Amino acid sequence: MKISVVIPVLHEQDQINGIIRHLRSIDPDVEIIVVDGDPGGSTIAVIADGTVFRLGSSIKGRGNQLAAGTATASGDILVMLHADTFLPSHAFSSILAAISRGADWGAFRLGIDATSPSYRLIERFVDLRCTLFELPYGDQAIFVSRSALQDIGGIPAIPLMEDVALARTLRQAGFRFTILPERVRTSPRRWQQDGIVRRTLCNWLLLLRYLFGADPRKLANQYRAN
Predict the structure, then answer these.
(1) Closest CA to 181 of 121, 80, 106
(2) Are strands 53-56 and 85-86 parallel, antiparallel or unpaired?
(3) What DSSP string describes 148-193?
(4) Which residues of the chain have pLDDT under 70?
(5) pLDDT by residue (tens digit) across 165-182?
(6) Which fold has domain 3-189?
(7) Pairing relationship of beta strands 142-145 and 177-183 according to DSSP bridges
(8) Angle between the 216-225 and 196-211 helix axes, to the nearest 10 degrees?
(9) By the 8 A CB rule, do 156 and 220 touch?
């Protein structure tokens, strides 16, 4: 089975070549699609790997970019990856094994690339959220079979909370979820920029507002403002 990795980006010039090299170190032949939310294509312009598919997005927002990228991908399994999240060394074999055991979609456990005990607490809460509610976030490298994604109509083309909308739709459709034992290694930059408590509370508030019907476009504007 073929795996495609779709990376939505916005002003990730400093990160993108590092994540591409990382993916190639896991599997030199994996299909990589980078979808740039900047109309000027500032991130895709600096990509050094000539085999990477570069797409521009007419509408900024991770959901819109992921929808465009997954529509272009040729893989049987789609992996949605943030530009600042590194996968475990055997990520693709773990995904293939999970699919072979009957999973339709899933994610890795969250790992935050920082030493403070506060980050370990965040990771444990995320583990619990995924166990109880089957609700991974995009920084956990969500993967899904092409057949399941096509069955639900693709990635929700919304600027924020596309990961939550995708998870809820897949769960409601009865597709089998799995949380893999390995952890990704994601950048702590957002928590460090905003403060751990403030960023965590903001994330919870955004989730609750979305679940109670708030417009994802307004939530995206608030997320960027914060």
Answers:
(1) 106
(2) unpaired
(3) HHHHTTSS---SS-HHHHHHHHHHHTTPPEEEEEEE-EE--HHHHH
(4) 57-58, 224-226
(5) 999 999 999 999 999 999
(6) Spore Coat Polysaccharide Biosynthesis Protein SpsA; Chain A (3.90.550)
(7) unpaired
(8) 170
(9) no
